[in-house]
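Supplementary Note 3. Input sequence used for the single-chain structure prediction.
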Amino acid sequence: MTQPDQLTDQDLIARTLNWRRAVMHGDEGARHVAQAHEEEARRRFAGATTINGTLEALEPKRKPLWQRLLP
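The predicted structure, written as discrete structure tokens, is reproduced below.
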């Protein structure tokens, strides 16, 4: 079996989900493998969140005519 640290990012995510699913369905033997995959995913993606992405300002949305005419 391929070790978690030898997998590509996409393969790691897919296998982690599959092993966790097996554990949730009662497969006791899958628990250790799932933990190893989750540990590698946490190590690899520790700082990768959408919060770190750059935010670009959006154009202000123009209000509908009826909202602009009413005070």
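Residues 36 and 62 are 51 Å apart (CA to CA). The mean pLDDT is 83.
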